[in-house]
Amino acid sequence: HFLLWSVIVLVSIVIVITATIAILYLNQYPLNGAMSSPVISTNPKESGALVTVSHVTAGEPISIFLDPNCPDYSENFLRWEALQSSLLRALSSHNSDDWQERGLVQKLAEELKVLVGHIHNLRLEADSLKRGQGVLDQQLNGLQSEQSRIIQVSFHSGVLKLVAGFSDSMLSLQRETEGLRTLKGDLQKDTGNALTHTVARPRDCSDVMALGVTQDGVYSVFPTHDPNGFMVYCDMTTDGGGWTVIQRREDGSVNFFRGWEAYRDGFGRTTGEHWLGLQRIYSLTRSGGFELRIDMADFDNATAFAHYADFSVGRDSVNPEEDGYPLTVDQYSGTAGDSLLKHSGMRFTTKDRDHDQSENNCAAYYQGAWWYRNCHTSNLNGQYLRGGHASYADGVEWSSWTGWQYSLRFTEMKIRPTSDKNKLSTN
Prior knowledge:
With 427 residues, this protein is an alpha+beta fold. 43% of the residues lie in helices and 16% in strands. The chain has helices spanning 2-28, 74-93, 99-194, 205-210, 260-265, 278-285, 320-323, 362-365, 399-402, 419-426, and strands at residues 40-41, 62-63, 217-221, 230-235, 243-249, 267-268, 274-275, 290-297, 303-313, 327-334, 378-379, 387-388, 397-398, 406-407, 410-417. A hairpin with a 7-residue loop joins strand 4 (230-235) and strand 5.
């Protein structure tokens, strides 16, 4: 009986092992049937077992967890094979007279042989999987090496493309530079040919006109003694044109009762009422050789002009401001009568700087700024009083034409080099 119980225990163990191996075998070689194939999950269980099998009931999937480190289970296979061999020897050596017991033992022996075959196959497959893992590791290492090589090649290719692009840019820049040099040479050649009898930087409006300009307007001039230049209004139509405007009154929009600095530097709008500035007039006329024309109009649209063949401000002066920008004017002609020759030789006076010969400041008294003597026969920078006025001589006055109590509607003072100076400058 003891032996019988031992056999029963061993059979129970074998049944458990057989069931486990059968489940694994079915999972490895599923049978075709009405039931759907079980779902295999590789999510690890908390147990950390090599293989975790759960019963397939109510749709519960079979979960299998394989250690990613793929440990060596050959010892377990050897233990199972040894156990089965022991069982087979025990069953083979068991003698029983009961034919039912003997048949059961033979059946168990056959089942164990089958299980031995399955276990052997599983061992072979496990060894194959392990070898496959080794191959995969080698392939992974190969892929990593290939990836590194590709990265290096890509980087090297990018650097080569960058260098090639930079080289192309440098070549393009060199070509453009050569083109600009050629263009510069052509422009210099053309400019030299165009300025055979004129200067590239016009000194005044007569030089602007010599360049072929015939339209009245604002232009840049660069006098010999003021190389930075400034903007002036050029009259290209009156009496042959080429006039540089130095003063204009036309509508009373600009206040002319100003101090010394304003008259020294100039004020107003070049296209409208303005005073060019004593320093600029000096830079244009300091060497002499200029003529002055003054055009006038009253409020009845009558017009007149006064022309002076010799005009300059601060002629040959080393410090014109300290000298007061003295006026030189001579050789009158025209239709308005002379009201300026008596001012020749006088220094300029403003309300805040008195250079006249009167006991009073003529500029303050007559509301203007001029080359006053004691005090004036003309006051073109006086108040814009719009025709006849009750006050005395404090308007825009030209006494030889309209007296001392009539303020003119329009005046324009303009200068240009004399014909003799033009001949000297072109020879």
